[in-house]
Design a protein that fits this description.
Residues 105-172 form the Multidrug resistance protein MdtA-like alpha-helical hairpin domain. Residues 302-359 form the Multidrug resistance protein MdtA-like C-terminal permuted SH3 domain. Its main location: membrane. There is one protein chain. The chain is an alpha+beta fold. Among the domains are: 35-49 and 299-371, conserved putative lor/sdh protein from methanococcus maripaludis s2 fold; 51-61 and 209-295, Elongation Factor Tu (Ef-tu), domain 3; 97-172, Helix Hairpins. Helix content is 26%, strand content 36%. β11 (252-261) and β12 (267-274) form a beta hairpin. α2 (98-131) runs antiparallel to α3 (139-171).
Length: 389
Protein backbone atom coordinates (compact mmCIF):
# COMPACT_ATOMS: atom_id res chain seq x y z
CA UNK A 1 0.00 0.00 0.00
CA UNK A 2 2.83 2.37 0.85
CA UNK A 3 4.60 1.57 -2.44
CA UNK A 4 1.46 2.37 -4.47
CA UNK A 5 1.07 5.69 -2.63
CA UNK A 6 4.72 6.65 -3.37
CA UNK A 7 4.39 5.84 -7.09
CA UNK A 8 1.21 7.92 -7.30
CA UNK A 9 2.91 10.88 -5.62
CA UNK A 10 5.93 10.68 -7.99
CA UNK A 11 3.62 10.59 -11.01
CA UNK A 12 1.74 13.68 -9.85
CA UNK A 13 5.02 15.51 -9.19
CA UNK A 14 6.39 14.69 -12.68
CA UNK A 15 3.19 15.93 -14.32
CA UNK A 16 3.39 19.19 -12.34
CA UNK A 17 7.05 19.75 -13.36
CA UNK A 18 6.27 19.18 -17.06
CA UNK A 19 3.37 21.62 -16.93
CA UNK A 20 5.53 24.22 -15.19
CA UNK A 21 8.27 23.83 -17.79
CA UNK A 22 5.71 24.25 -20.60
CA UNK A 23 4.34 27.44 -19.06
CA UNK A 24 7.86 28.96 -18.84
CA UNK A 25 8.23 28.79 -22.67
CA UNK A 26 10.43 25.75 -22.91
CA UNK A 27 8.29 24.26 -25.69
CA UNK A 28 7.42 25.46 -29.19
CA UNK A 29 5.23 28.52 -29.86
CA UNK A 30 1.63 28.63 -30.77
CA UNK A 31 0.58 25.98 -33.20
CA UNK A 32 3.89 24.14 -32.64
CA UNK A 33 5.91 26.51 -34.96
CA UNK A 34 9.16 28.35 -34.14
CA UNK A 35 8.92 32.17 -34.17
CA UNK A 36 10.57 33.98 -37.16
CA UNK A 37 14.28 34.74 -36.60
CA UNK A 38 15.27 38.25 -35.66
CA UNK A 39 17.58 39.96 -38.17
CA UNK A 40 19.21 43.39 -38.24
CA UNK A 41 19.09 45.52 -41.38
CA UNK A 42 20.40 48.78 -42.76
CA UNK A 43 18.64 50.94 -45.33
CA UNK A 44 20.82 51.67 -48.38
CA UNK A 45 20.56 54.65 -50.68
CA UNK A 46 22.54 55.46 -53.84
CA UNK A 47 25.11 58.19 -53.45
CA UNK A 48 28.31 59.59 -54.91
CA UNK A 49 31.20 57.63 -53.43
CA UNK A 50 34.84 58.63 -53.77
CA UNK A 51 37.07 56.07 -55.44
CA UNK A 52 40.19 55.90 -53.30
CA UNK A 53 43.55 54.24 -53.66
CA UNK A 54 45.47 53.71 -50.44
CA UNK A 55 49.11 52.75 -50.42
CA UNK A 56 52.32 53.11 -48.48
CA UNK A 57 54.68 55.79 -49.68
CA UNK A 58 58.04 57.31 -48.84
CA UNK A 59 58.88 60.98 -48.53
CA UNK A 60 61.71 62.27 -50.71
CA UNK A 61 63.41 65.65 -50.95
CA UNK A 62 62.14 67.98 -53.64
CA UNK A 63 65.75 68.77 -54.53
CA UNK A 64 68.97 67.33 -53.17
CA UNK A 65 72.37 68.89 -53.86
CA UNK A 66 75.89 67.75 -53.03
CA UNK A 67 78.24 70.37 -51.59
CA UNK A 68 81.72 69.59 -52.92
CA UNK A 69 85.18 71.13 -52.79
CA UNK A 70 85.94 72.55 -56.23
CA UNK A 71 89.59 73.45 -55.49
CA UNK A 72 92.39 71.67 -53.69
CA UNK A 73 93.22 72.82 -50.21
CA UNK A 74 92.94 72.27 -46.48
CA UNK A 75 89.61 72.83 -44.73
CA UNK A 76 90.03 75.59 -42.16
CA UNK A 77 86.57 75.54 -40.55
CA UNK A 78 82.95 74.52 -40.86
CA UNK A 79 80.71 77.57 -40.80
CA UNK A 80 77.19 76.12 -40.80
CA UNK A 81 75.35 74.12 -38.10
CA UNK A 82 74.63 70.52 -39.02
CA UNK A 83 70.91 69.84 -39.44
CA UNK A 84 70.03 73.54 -39.73
CA UNK A 85 68.24 75.30 -42.57
CA UNK A 86 70.52 77.23 -44.92
CA UNK A 87 69.82 79.80 -47.63
CA UNK A 88 71.13 79.98 -51.16
CA UNK A 89 74.70 81.30 -51.17
CA UNK A 90 75.20 80.91 -47.43
CA UNK A 91 78.86 80.06 -46.56
CA UNK A 92 79.27 76.50 -45.28
CA UNK A 93 83.03 75.70 -45.38
CA UNK A 94 86.22 77.71 -45.59
CA UNK A 95 89.23 76.28 -47.42
CA UNK A 96 92.67 77.82 -46.84
CA UNK A 97 92.78 80.65 -49.43
CA UNK A 98 96.47 81.60 -49.15
CA UNK A 99 97.80 79.22 -51.86
CA UNK A 100 95.00 80.38 -54.15
CA UNK A 101 95.81 84.02 -53.49
CA UNK A 102 99.43 83.33 -54.34
CA UNK A 103 98.35 81.70 -57.60
CA UNK A 104 96.28 84.79 -58.40
CA UNK A 105 99.24 87.08 -57.72
CA UNK A 106 101.45 84.97 -59.99
CA UNK A 107 98.87 85.14 -62.75
CA UNK A 108 98.66 88.91 -62.39
CA UNK A 109 102.47 89.19 -62.63
CA UNK A 110 102.45 87.06 -65.77
CA UNK A 111 99.78 89.36 -67.18
CA UNK A 112 101.91 92.43 -66.48
CA UNK A 113 104.89 90.83 -68.20
CA UNK A 114 102.76 89.94 -71.21
CA UNK A 115 101.42 93.48 -71.42
CA UNK A 116 104.98 94.91 -71.36
CA UNK A 117 106.07 92.54 -74.10
CA UNK A 118 103.00 93.48 -76.07
CA UNK A 119 103.83 97.20 -75.75
CA UNK A 120 107.40 96.66 -77.06
CA UNK A 121 106.16 94.52 -79.92
CA UNK A 122 103.59 97.15 -80.83
CA UNK A 123 106.28 99.90 -80.90
CA UNK A 124 108.58 97.78 -83.09
CA UNK A 125 105.74 97.01 -85.47
CA UNK A 126 104.85 100.72 -85.75
CA UNK A 127 108.46 101.61 -86.64
CA UNK A 128 108.54 98.90 -89.23
CA UNK A 129 105.34 100.17 -90.79
CA UNK A 130 106.84 103.67 -90.97
CA UNK A 131 110.04 102.51 -92.68
CA UNK A 132 108.33 100.19 -95.14
CA UNK A 133 107.11 102.89 -97.63
CA UNK A 134 110.69 104.23 -98.12
CA UNK A 135 112.05 100.74 -98.55
CA UNK A 136 114.30 101.28 -95.56
CA UNK A 137 113.29 97.84 -94.23
CA UNK A 138 112.81 94.57 -95.99
CA UNK A 139 109.40 92.99 -96.42
CA UNK A 140 110.47 90.04 -94.27
CA UNK A 141 111.45 92.29 -91.35
CA UNK A 142 108.05 94.03 -91.57
CA UNK A 143 106.20 90.71 -91.50
CA UNK A 144 108.25 89.54 -88.51
CA UNK A 145 107.49 92.72 -86.57
CA UNK A 146 103.74 92.46 -87.24
CA UNK A 147 103.72 88.76 -86.28
CA UNK A 148 105.56 89.54 -83.03
CA UNK A 149 102.94 92.19 -82.23
CA UNK A 150 100.09 89.73 -82.78
CA UNK A 151 101.77 87.04 -80.65
CA UNK A 152 102.29 89.54 -77.85
CA UNK A 153 98.62 90.55 -77.97
CA UNK A 154 97.57 86.89 -77.80
CA UNK A 155 99.88 86.34 -74.82
CA UNK A 156 98.16 89.24 -73.06
CA UNK A 157 94.74 87.67 -73.58
CA UNK A 158 96.04 84.34 -72.34
CA UNK A 159 97.46 85.97 -69.23
CA UNK A 160 94.16 87.75 -68.63
CA UNK A 161 92.29 84.42 -68.79
CA UNK A 162 94.78 82.93 -66.31
CA UNK A 163 94.13 85.78 -63.90
CA UNK A 164 90.37 85.30 -64.22
CA UNK A 165 90.71 81.54 -63.58
CA UNK A 166 92.90 82.18 -60.53
CA UNK A 167 90.33 84.60 -59.12
CA UNK A 168 87.53 82.06 -59.66
CA UNK A 169 89.53 79.38 -57.84
CA UNK A 170 90.23 81.84 -55.05
CA UNK A 171 86.48 82.39 -54.72
CA UNK A 172 85.94 78.63 -54.45
CA UNK A 173 87.90 78.69 -51.19
CA UNK A 174 84.65 79.80 -49.57
CA UNK A 175 82.11 76.99 -50.16
CA UNK A 176 78.50 78.20 -50.34
CA UNK A 177 75.11 76.44 -50.28
CA UNK A 178 73.94 75.80 -53.86
CA UNK A 179 70.23 75.62 -52.88
CA UNK A 180 68.08 76.53 -49.89
CA UNK A 181 67.22 73.62 -47.63
CA UNK A 182 68.31 71.55 -44.66
CA UNK A 183 72.03 70.89 -44.36
CA UNK A 184 73.26 67.41 -43.57
CA UNK A 185 76.18 66.02 -41.59
CA UNK A 186 79.64 67.24 -42.56
CA UNK A 187 81.69 64.58 -44.31
CA UNK A 188 85.04 66.20 -43.51
CA UNK A 189 86.55 67.91 -40.50
CA UNK A 190 88.93 70.84 -40.06
CA UNK A 191 92.41 70.05 -41.37
CA UNK A 192 91.23 67.63 -44.05
CA UNK A 193 92.89 67.87 -47.44
CA UNK A 194 90.20 68.06 -50.10
CA UNK A 195 89.92 68.49 -53.85
CA UNK A 196 92.95 66.39 -54.74
CA UNK A 197 92.02 65.11 -58.21
CA UNK A 198 88.29 64.80 -57.47
CA UNK A 199 85.65 67.14 -56.04
CA UNK A 200 85.47 65.95 -52.44
CA UNK A 201 81.97 65.64 -50.94
CA UNK A 202 81.67 68.00 -47.97
CA UNK A 203 77.96 67.65 -47.12
CA UNK A 204 74.50 67.63 -48.71
CA UNK A 205 71.57 70.06 -48.72
CA UNK A 206 67.99 68.80 -49.13
CA UNK A 207 65.06 71.04 -49.96
CA UNK A 208 62.25 69.86 -47.66
CA UNK A 209 59.52 72.33 -48.63
CA UNK A 210 57.81 70.94 -50.58
CA UNK A 211 58.43 67.18 -50.40
CA UNK A 212 57.80 64.40 -52.89
CA UNK A 213 55.73 61.33 -51.94
CA UNK A 214 56.60 58.27 -54.00
CA UNK A 215 54.11 55.38 -53.91
CA UNK A 216 52.65 52.66 -56.14
CA UNK A 217 49.14 51.57 -57.15
CA UNK A 218 48.18 48.20 -58.65
CA UNK A 219 47.68 48.34 -62.40
CA UNK A 220 44.17 46.83 -62.15
CA UNK A 221 43.09 49.41 -59.60
CA UNK A 222 44.65 52.21 -61.59
CA UNK A 223 42.87 51.09 -64.76
CA UNK A 224 39.53 51.00 -62.93
CA UNK A 225 40.20 54.40 -61.39
CA UNK A 226 40.99 55.92 -64.76
CA UNK A 227 37.78 54.50 -66.20
CA UNK A 228 35.76 55.95 -63.36
CA UNK A 229 37.56 59.29 -63.55
CA UNK A 230 36.18 59.71 -67.06
CA UNK A 231 32.72 59.65 -65.51
CA UNK A 232 33.16 61.59 -62.30
CA UNK A 233 36.25 63.75 -62.84
CA UNK A 234 37.80 62.96 -59.46
CA UNK A 235 40.40 64.92 -57.53
CA UNK A 236 44.18 65.00 -57.74
CA UNK A 237 44.58 65.76 -54.04
CA UNK A 238 46.10 63.16 -51.73
CA UNK A 239 45.58 62.79 -47.97
CA UNK A 240 48.70 61.91 -46.01
CA UNK A 241 48.50 59.71 -42.90
CA UNK A 242 51.56 59.91 -40.65
CA UNK A 243 53.19 56.88 -38.97
CA UNK A 244 51.36 57.66 -35.70
CA UNK A 245 47.99 57.40 -37.49
CA UNK A 246 47.24 61.14 -37.52
CA UNK A 247 46.27 63.03 -40.65
CA UNK A 248 48.76 65.64 -41.89
CA UNK A 249 47.22 69.12 -42.06
CA UNK A 250 48.46 69.68 -45.63
CA UNK A 251 47.15 67.88 -48.71
CA UNK A 252 49.47 66.64 -51.41
CA UNK A 253 48.73 66.90 -55.11
CA UNK A 254 49.50 64.28 -57.75
CA UNK A 255 52.02 65.51 -60.30
CA UNK A 256 53.30 62.33 -61.96
CA UNK A 257 51.87 59.00 -63.07
CA UNK A 258 54.16 56.35 -64.46
CA UNK A 259 53.51 54.63 -67.77
CA UNK A 260 55.48 51.43 -67.08
CA UNK A 261 54.25 48.52 -64.95
CA UNK A 262 56.79 46.96 -62.60
CA UNK A 263 56.87 43.27 -63.63
CA UNK A 264 57.87 42.21 -60.12
CA UNK A 265 54.94 43.86 -58.30
CA UNK A 266 52.39 44.59 -61.06
CA UNK A 267 52.17 48.20 -59.82
CA UNK A 268 52.57 51.64 -61.38
CA UNK A 269 54.59 54.37 -59.71
CA UNK A 270 52.85 57.59 -58.74
CA UNK A 271 54.22 60.78 -57.20
CA UNK A 272 52.64 63.63 -55.29
CA UNK A 273 53.89 67.03 -54.14
CA UNK A 274 53.36 67.76 -50.42
CA UNK A 275 53.75 71.26 -48.89
CA UNK A 276 55.88 71.22 -45.73
CA UNK A 277 56.03 74.86 -44.59
CA UNK A 278 56.92 74.08 -40.98
CA UNK A 279 59.59 71.54 -41.97
CA UNK A 280 57.96 68.98 -39.68
CA UNK A 281 58.40 66.06 -42.08
CA UNK A 282 61.75 64.68 -43.19
CA UNK A 283 62.83 62.81 -46.32
CA UNK A 284 62.86 59.04 -45.94
CA UNK A 285 59.78 58.89 -43.68
CA UNK A 286 57.23 56.23 -44.59
CA UNK A 287 53.63 57.46 -44.70
CA UNK A 288 50.26 56.20 -45.92
CA UNK A 289 48.64 58.04 -48.79
CA UNK A 290 44.95 58.01 -49.61
CA UNK A 291 44.33 59.29 -53.10
CA UNK A 292 40.84 60.19 -54.30
CA UNK A 293 41.23 59.79 -58.04
CA UNK A 294 37.59 59.52 -59.12
CA UNK A 295 33.96 59.66 -57.99
CA UNK A 296 31.44 56.89 -58.60
CA UNK A 297 27.92 58.16 -59.21
CA UNK A 298 24.83 56.29 -57.96
CA UNK A 299 26.77 53.64 -56.04
CA UNK A 300 25.70 51.69 -52.96
CA UNK A 301 27.80 51.27 -49.82
CA UNK A 302 27.08 47.87 -48.19
CA UNK A 303 28.73 46.55 -45.02
CA UNK A 304 31.15 43.78 -45.90
CA UNK A 305 29.52 41.38 -43.38
CA UNK A 306 26.30 41.41 -45.42
CA UNK A 307 27.94 40.10 -48.61
CA UNK A 308 27.30 36.43 -49.42
CA UNK A 309 28.73 34.44 -52.32
CA UNK A 310 27.86 31.34 -54.27
CA UNK A 311 28.49 30.01 -57.77
CA UNK A 312 26.40 32.82 -59.27
CA UNK A 313 28.48 35.53 -57.61
CA UNK A 314 27.97 37.99 -54.75
CA UNK A 315 24.50 38.63 -53.34
CA UNK A 316 22.70 39.98 -50.29
CA UNK A 317 19.50 39.19 -48.45
CA UNK A 318 16.97 42.00 -48.10
CA UNK A 319 13.77 42.34 -46.10
CA UNK A 320 10.74 42.50 -48.38
CA UNK A 321 7.51 44.43 -47.77
CA UNK A 322 5.95 41.23 -46.36
CA UNK A 323 8.80 40.82 -43.84
CA UNK A 324 10.26 37.92 -45.79
CA UNK A 325 13.89 37.51 -46.80
CA UNK A 326 14.63 37.96 -50.50
CA UNK A 327 17.82 37.44 -52.47
CA UNK A 328 19.34 40.17 -54.66
CA UNK A 329 22.35 39.41 -56.83
CA UNK A 330 25.06 42.04 -57.07
CA UNK A 331 27.53 42.95 -59.80
CA UNK A 332 31.24 42.74 -59.06
CA UNK A 333 32.24 45.61 -56.84
CA UNK A 334 35.22 46.80 -54.88
CA UNK A 335 36.15 46.80 -51.23
CA UNK A 336 36.70 50.12 -49.50
CA UNK A 337 37.54 49.79 -45.83
CA UNK A 338 34.81 47.71 -44.13
CA UNK A 339 32.33 48.32 -46.95
CA UNK A 340 31.61 46.77 -50.33
CA UNK A 341 30.86 49.28 -53.11
CA UNK A 342 28.61 48.23 -56.01
CA UNK A 343 27.14 50.20 -58.88
CA UNK A 344 23.76 48.41 -58.99
CA UNK A 345 21.73 45.36 -58.04
CA UNK A 346 19.75 47.20 -55.35
CA UNK A 347 16.90 49.66 -55.23
CA UNK A 348 16.81 52.88 -53.18
CA UNK A 349 15.50 52.15 -49.69
CA UNK A 350 16.26 48.42 -49.69
CA UNK A 351 16.67 46.90 -46.22
CA UNK A 352 19.86 44.84 -46.42
CA UNK A 353 20.26 42.21 -43.71
CA UNK A 354 23.59 42.67 -41.94
CA UNK A 355 23.14 40.59 -38.78
CA UNK A 356 21.45 37.27 -38.22
CA UNK A 357 22.04 36.21 -41.83
CA UNK A 358 22.97 32.71 -40.70
CA UNK A 359 19.50 32.31 -39.16
CA UNK A 360 17.82 32.71 -42.56
CA UNK A 361 17.74 29.23 -44.05
CA UNK A 362 16.48 30.24 -47.50
CA UNK A 363 14.97 33.20 -49.39
CA UNK A 364 11.24 33.61 -48.77
CA UNK A 365 11.51 32.78 -45.09
CA UNK A 366 9.64 35.07 -42.71
CA UNK A 367 11.91 37.20 -40.51
CA UNK A 368 11.56 39.69 -37.70
CA UNK A 369 13.43 42.80 -38.95
CA UNK A 370 14.94 45.34 -36.56
CA UNK A 371 17.28 48.24 -37.38
CA UNK A 372 20.89 47.17 -37.04
CA UNK A 373 21.73 50.17 -34.86
CA UNK A 374 18.84 49.46 -32.42
CA UNK A 375 19.81 48.42 -28.92
CA UNK A 376 18.99 44.78 -28.12
CA UNK A 377 16.23 44.14 -25.57
CA UNK A 378 17.32 43.36 -22.03
CA UNK A 379 17.23 39.63 -21.29
CA UNK A 380 14.46 38.43 -19.01
CA UNK A 381 15.38 37.76 -15.42
CA UNK A 382 16.05 34.13 -14.65
CA UNK A 383 13.29 32.42 -12.69
CA UNK A 384 14.11 31.64 -9.08
CA UNK A 385 14.50 27.94 -8.35
CA UNK A 386 11.42 26.39 -6.80
CA UNK A 387 11.61 25.38 -3.19
CA UNK A 388 11.44 21.73 -2.50
CA UNK A 389 8.10 20.83 -0.94
Amino acid sequence: MKTTTRLLALSVLSTALIACSSKQGGGPGQGGQMPPPEVGFVVVQPSTIAVEAQSSGRLAAYRSSDVRARVAGVVQRRIYTEGSDVKVGQPMFQIDPEPLRAATAAAQAALASAQATSANAHAAAERARGLAPGKFISRADLDNAVAAERSANAAVKQAQAAVQSARINEGYASVHAPIAGRAGIAQVTEGALVGQGTATLLTTVDQVDPLYIEFSVGVNDLTKLRELSAQGGGSREVDVILPDGSMFDQKARLDFSGSVVDPATGAVKLRALLPNPQHLLMPGTFVTVKATLAEQQGAYRIPQIAILRDQQGPYVLVVGSDDKAARKSLPDGRQQGSNYIVSGGLAPGDKVIVSGVQRVQQPGQAVKPVPADAKPAAPAAAAAPAKQG
